[in-house]
Design goal:
oxidoreductase activity; EC 1.-.-.-; Luciferase-like_sf; Luciferase-like_dom; TIM Barrel; LLM class flavin-dependent oxidoreductase
Length: 340
Amino acid sequence: MKKIGFLSFGHWSDSPHSRTRTASDAVAQAVDLAVAAEELGADGAYFRVHHFARQLASPFPLLAAIGARTERIEIGTGVVDMRYENPMYMAEDAGTADLVAGGRLQLGLSRGSPEQVVDGWRYFGYQPGEGDTDADMARKHTEVLLAVLEGKGFAQPNPRPMFPNPPGLLRVEPHSPGLRDRIWWGAGSNATAAWAARQGMHLMSSTLKNDEGGAPFHVQQAEQVRAFRKAWAEAGWQHRPRVSVSRSIFALTSDLDRAYFGGDGDSADHIGHIDADTRAIFGRTYAAEPDVLVGQLAEDEAIAEADTLLLTVPNQLGVDYNAHVLDNILTHVAPALGWR
């Protein structure tokens, strides 16, 4: 059995071929797709966060809106670039969104990836400390966030406050109990997956990772998952670790499906660079008739290792079509693979 959700990058474009023409369209359709996904029986609605781009950027108002419109589905990010974040303010926003959703927030974080502008985090007021890299800064922001989400008091109270204080040191409010155990890390390498495990964060692994050895993408990703689980066990955490992997999967059940994705049936892994120093492997797109798709997915080692599958959706094709994409997987593929 697997949890199955969607991951949207929240693009919008004024192209005549886009059904998501404006930022307003992107936000409203994100809420509507999450509602539709819950009605179809999906388990998660996740959103990528990018800055300086025509994509969704500020996740917590959106997640709170989805939390208010839904009752069961997990809501989350995949992922927030921690180079840009004030961890104290983030703890307040995340706590509020989680309380609105009744404890359904699954917060995915990462050290970040190449963005639309050079060192965009500098415009947000952040700069690595002396001797640190931007990745070091992201991890330090994350460590502060994790500590704050524990809910322990750390701030000295004013002896003459405007309102009465509880006894002792004060914490960031509102605090949402349990949120600390629902933090995920988007890891690009085996080493960062193990680091996430030692911090007690769940693992998010996307459709690309650092190329570590030259094996097929799904094999390398499965190795990453096993490294994460080993480090988690060694760290002695008491709560159950979770692992999500992302995939582009399209079951071709209509002429429109075949028109959009029929040409992706021969897709394969490919190699590229996410920066000047990092060689990466990008996973294939799966697109085939349902019975063929079942056979292909049964051989994907990383999906077999994971408990959660996030389906990347082409959000600019509109809510109705993306609901159809999800329904195809939930109805025609997942039961045949034992995921439902």
